[in-house]
Amino acid sequence: MINGEKLIPAPIRWAMVGGGKGSQIGYIHRSAALRDNVFQLVAGAFDIDPARGREFGANLGVDPERCYPDYATMFAEEAKRPDGIQAVSIATPNGTHFAICKAALNAGLHVVCEKPLCFTTEEAEELHRLAIEKKKVVGVTYGYAGHQLIEQAREMIARGDLGEIRIVQMQFAHGFHSEAVEEANPATRWRVDPKVAGPSYVLGDVGTHPLYLSEVMLPDLKIKRLMCSRQSFVKSRAPLEDNAFTIMEYDSGAVGYVWSCAVNAGSMHGQKVRVIGSKASIEWWDERPNQMTFEVQGEPVRILERGMGYLHPAALHDDRIGGGHPEGLFEAWSNLYYRFAQAMDASDRGDQAALQAIRYPDIHAGVEGVRWVENCVRSADSGGTWVDYR
Questions:
Q1: Cis omega (within 30 of 0) on the bond before 69?
Q2: The dihedral of CA 7, 12, 15, 21: what is its sign?
Q3: CATH number of the domain residue 181 falls in
Q4: What span, in angstroms and rounded, lies between the C-alpha atoms of 236 and 251?
Q5: Domain residues for 220?
Q6: How far apart are CA 339 and CA 315, in angstroms?
Q7: Are 132 and 216 in the same domain?
Q8: Do the domain assignments include residue 201?
Q9: How far apart are CA 182 and CA 311, in angstroms?
Q10: Same domain, 208 and 242
């Protein structure tokens, strides 16, 4: 990857729904997708205001005639073109994801969707069936899953470096919404509106991120049951929570814990995953993404550095600038987007072997994220009781 060599025969013709002017996440999507020349941005329905979206798209270099007033018009018009779009990214508020993703799949397009994929497990499984029927890739943007040290953790756990896995401690607990910032910030306001955000705030918005990282690291762990307690410390956000604690029991006998929080005053980001085994533990913190601690009982703590030759080849494969230089969010997202592109290319060629060899947050990850939130809400709303997971 360091040399930036060609990854697929030609860039995938790509569009965005949402992600317009002022959208931080839209910029991240574009930076990641365009970085390795695996996607080419050729169209978009960037804004709910058609004129503003058209102006924004033109400023990105997109043909104004291919800057559409809405996603339905874009899908219909692009289908008429011999050079029409092949894939679309959805960067809109949560309440729109299901309808847009379904329409995109029915239009024969690959999809990259912001999480949550939708609001209910039933909707998620409908999208899953549709993706299989249409033979299309659906990627979900659990962005830090593209970081190399997550791959290193996966390999270390698989080869037994930690021993028997006992505890998985996860958190995404920032402090930027410790006050009612949504009163003056429309970009935050929709996140605490059940009609737009869905049945949860921080469980779906931040909690699913470290949960998916743990699923990458520990693919064999399956949740048996969970118990969740959620709170609305900023009272105007009720019934949506701005803090939640989830305890999980796995089939193997291991236990897990997720702290999902937007009111951890003073915390910048606070996304951490710690995996504790019978012999050793590892911990990764996204604010210090170049390092992962490896702590063997009775020995000095070791700090594993991204990009170093002692790491597993799977961790080095995605390295971009060598050891020592800082990497983080944009690199992780770029790694995901190039995998999305390779999966889309393999799917279009009917190369199932190549497709199965590419690991990325796919439709299954989207379904499980929705299922986890749904179960957490069910537990919390019944008084923090244990609920069977499936």
A1: no
A2: positive
A3: 3.30.360.10
A4: 38
A5: 146-319+369-388
A6: 14
A7: no
A8: yes
A9: 43
A10: yes
Using DSSP bridges, classify how beta strands 12-18 and 87-91 pair: parallel, antiparallel or unpaired.
Answer: parallel
Specify whether 311 is located in the same domain as 175. yes
In a domain, residue 49? The reply is: yes
- CA distance linking residue 320 with residue 322, whole number of Å: 6
Query: What is the CATH classification number for the domain harbouring 35?
Result: 3.40.50.720
Residue 124 maps to a domain = yes
Residue 327 included in any domain: no
Residue 159: Cβ within 10 Å count: 9
Q: Which amino acid is at 331?
A: E
Q: Are residues 126 and 77 in the same domain?
A: yes
Total of domains in the chain = 2
pLDDT by residue for the chain (390 residues), tens digit each? 667 788 999 999 999 999 999 899 999 999 999 999 999 999 999 999 999 999 999 999 999 999 999 999 999 999 999 999 999 999 999 999 999 999 999 999 999 999 999 999 999 999 999 999 999 999 999 999 999 999 999 999 999 999 999 999 999 999 999 999 999 998 889 999 999 999 999 999 999 999 999 999 999 999 999 999 999 999 999 999 999 999 999 999 999 999 999 999 999 999 999 999 999 999 999 999 999 999 999 999 999 999 999 999 999 998 888 888 888 889 999 999 999 999 999 999 999 999 999 999 999 999 999 999 999 999 999 999 999 998
CA distance 141 to 158: 24
